Automatic annotation (TrEMBL), chains A, B:
Its main location: other. Binds 1 heme b (iron(II)-protoporphyrin IX) group non-covalently per subunit. This is Deferrochelatase. Belongs to the DyP-type peroxidase family. It comes from Streptomyces roseus. Its EC number is 1.11.1.-. It holds the Pfam family Dyp_perox_N.
Length: 424, 424
């Protein structure tokens, strides 16, 4: 099983969520064939014996580092996340960047397999299984100047346009290198963060870092779409890996059209990363009906206001008794829908964030919005342009930082991430 | 089952940790009798049917709000935590404080049962079970002036002495009221935080707030003592609820000696809360042997350097081949051990914290140290006094904030927390 088979991954989660039910328990035990064994679990004297014992345990779930795509894109949301950007150190260039990407890839490969980092491991994740750890690496626009590789920089990485509602902090935006860490255990995630920071050594220094979280597996009786800190079901409209055009929308074609200089991105994806503060005190003052109007879906089930269940298609043309569209013309889910944007689609895979209380006394909390697409100009940009003009949600959110990163394909045969760029 | 029976609680966790093992799965299903059913789980159309289905799910675990002691003291560590202090608003006194404690208790009771807050619930925790949510309330020294109750203030609440290594930020210390929230799901914990803040209304405003985390249940193959962000097993020496003197050490006697004015604290406990930064960059430069000398225990297993396993008693008198004590005279676990402090003992129940990167570029991470005792002058104070003078760990930590709170007993028969003080 590799990370690029999200269906298996998801169904394993589904088992975890209901493993206590008499029927499901047997099912869980019957389904161990696909589980990757984790060394720490098998070696542990206290460990459940055999791989059957590990399957239902959150810690044992392992995601492959190598593969067609990097992990952390179609991997189910994890309970904890860190996203951070690094800048190459003054004087560091292509050679140092290549060495760093090799060290980082080696470390990520070990940690995602539940093994300690080579050298002096801090021990923070000792005893724990990989806990669905993923590490994902990307390159920012400035990386290509720093490494003398501007000729191989895809135009898809051109800076995002300005949006009128942007309140961006440059200190927390962009950066030469981007790292996304996710895991279902907070110590496993922190351990990876520290190990990768250590491997950066003198080659790069942290530019910014953010922490996020999502539901813990098993918190709901059955797995379901995530909620965000506004209380909404968030992720419903995402393209599904089973859909025929999923790969085309999310991943750069492996050997598609486009200039040969950009072939290193075949199988890769572009990540847009935005720290979006939620103005929760204002939001909470709205009635439930007002909140539902803002999105165009009910809060409890995520169903369109035009009826049905979460998965029912929105009836965007439906007119209410007052002669107005039931899903308001400025409703967030209407404006962002692919059919309103020439088919523009992205895979949203966010973390919530909560950094305590801001200077003005309001909660410093919101969405670490991360979306994935084969081309930001046919994903994030047109949708955000439209939202920026007329989204009812705008009043309750504030975009505080922004980054756009080229995320290379997954490594093959002991490659490191980005090798096809840096040595190609 | 009530929260005051930590053994049942812990054994339930133990089952969760190994539920996938063929043997344990049967056991888990057989043990459902004790599980409190959670409404959201039972009502959910997607939910596992019947209470047997809920048991193995992290979300279904429920801790009682009412009881002899408040929840969140002997409750097993949760994956997420918020601790925060409030100050009563100018003009608010005993009456407003009593009304607030009633509102807060009502809300905590609902949320800990997995129900929405009364009034407009934000929906953030919808679908999730209570996920071991606990809410714990305490009163700081200043609360008693604000409410005109100084005659009933226990001397145990006298300000802690200054310690030479203290680098305390007054803005993040003390406060009239203290609230501790813990849950195994981040959205459940955040939901409780927001609901309680909302209930504070005009009566109190947040003074400071901190976020923390621990291992997720199931991250290790079998439940075990927690690790902290230095990578050490942390909690080994804690008094165990099964020990005969546990209650005497941790809880104020229900009808013990002491003046009648303080009877309202019978069954309560005192919490010392310190934000202790770890100087992780310095720590990581030490060799494993050096790190183990600092504590006096091995990092991998937590066993004393004098041999054995985690639970072996430290042989403090043992001399090594170099003529020096094997567990160094300044080792943290030696200096803090009850036998070195006239039996002084406390229950340490911390969260790790990680708030990104500090202004100086080092990680803003460490331990939200929370310890519980019947009397801080026979728990925290003598131990910290000794650590302050000679602890090898001092070099690698920095106490940044401090609070001491009187945590009343658990409420009975629809009481609110603190009612015996505020209406007694
Ligand atoms: C804090 C900020 C945001 C919140 C709280 C939010 C919330 C939501 C919610 C509740 C939905 C409906 C359920 C769903 O389909 O997932 C939704 C849909 C969507 N949002 Fe957002 N959103 C935010 C920002 C953004 C941004 C910045 C973009 C992209 C520019 C975006 C793009 C979309 C898309 C494409 C959909 C799916 C529409 C469909 O296919 O039906 N959202 N969002
Ligand atoms: C970041 C700060 C601290 C760290 C990393 C830390 C770490 C540890 C570790 C690894 C142990 C050995 C395992 C165990 O018994 O739990 C320990 C024991 C202990 N620590 Fe700390 N500690 C810290 C601060 C404190 C403070 C401030 C106090 C109280 C004033 C304290 C009191 C104790 C006690 C009472 C023991 C148990 C000793 C025994 O019974 O054997 N610690 N600590």
């Amino acid at each position: 099983m590799t990370e690029s088979n999200p269906d298996i991954e998801i169904s394993r989660r589904r088992l975890l969520g209901t493993v206590g039910a008499a029927g499901a328990a047997g099912l869980a035990l019957g389904a161990t064939g696909g589980a990757l064994a984790h060394s720490a679990f098998d070696d542990s004297p206290a460990g459940a014996s055999g791989s059957a014992g590990s399957l239902a345990s959150l810690g044992a779930t392992q995601v492959a580092f190598d593969g067609e795509h990097q992990a952390g894109i179609t991997t189910p949301l994890q309970a904890k996340g860190h996203v951070l950007a690094f800048d190459l150190a003054p004087g560091a260039g292509r050679k140092e960047a290549a060495a760093l990407m090799r060290r980082w890839s080696d470390t990520a490969r070990l940690l995602m397999a539940g093994k300690p980092a080579s050298g002096a491991d801090s021990g923070i994740a000792l005893d724990a299984g990989p806990s669905s750890l993923t590490v994902t690496f990307g390159f920012g626009h400035s990386f290509f100047e720093r490494t003398g590789l501007t000729s191989r920089r895809p135009t898809a990485l051109d800076p995002l346009p300005d949006f009128s509602a942007d309140r961006l902090d440059a200190q927390r935006s962009n950066g030469d290198l981007w790292v996304q860490i996710g895991a279902d255990d907070g110590l496993v995630a922190f351990h990876a963060l520290r190990a990768l920071q250590k491997e950066a050594g003198e080659a790069a220094r942290v530019r910014w870092q953010m922490n996020g979280f999502n539901r813990s597996p098993g918190a709901t009786a059955a797995p379901m779409t995530a909620r965000n800190l506004m209380g909404q079901i968030d992720g419903t409209g995402n393209p599904k890996p089973a859909q025929p055009d999923f790969d085309k929308r999310i991943f750069v074609p492996a050997a598609g059209p486009g200039p040969a200089e950009h072939a290193w991105m075949g199988g890769g994806s572009y990540a847009v990363v935005r720290r979006i503060r939620m103005l929760l005190d204002d939001w909470d003052k709205q009635s439930l009906a007002q909140q539902e109007q803002v999105i165009g879906r009910t809060k409890a089930t995520g169903a369109p206001l035009t009826g049905g269940t979460e998965t029912t298609k929105m009836a965007l043309d439906k007119i209410g008794p007052d002669g107005k569209p039931v899903i308001a013309s400025n409703a967030h889910a209407r404006i962002s829908a692919p059919e309103q944007n020439g088919g523009a689609a992205m895979l949203r895979r966010p973390f919530s964030f909560h950094d305590g209380i801001a200077a003005d006394g309001t909660p410093d909390a919101g969405l670490l919005f991360i979306c994935w697409q084969a081309d930001p100009l046919r994903g994030f940009v047109p949708v955000q342009r439209k939202l920026d003009r007329g989204d009812a949600l705008s009043e309750f959110i504030r975009h505080e930082s922004s980054g756009l990163y080229a995320v290379p394909p997954g490594p093959r045969d002991g490659e490191y991430v980005g090798q096809r760029l840096l040595e190609g």
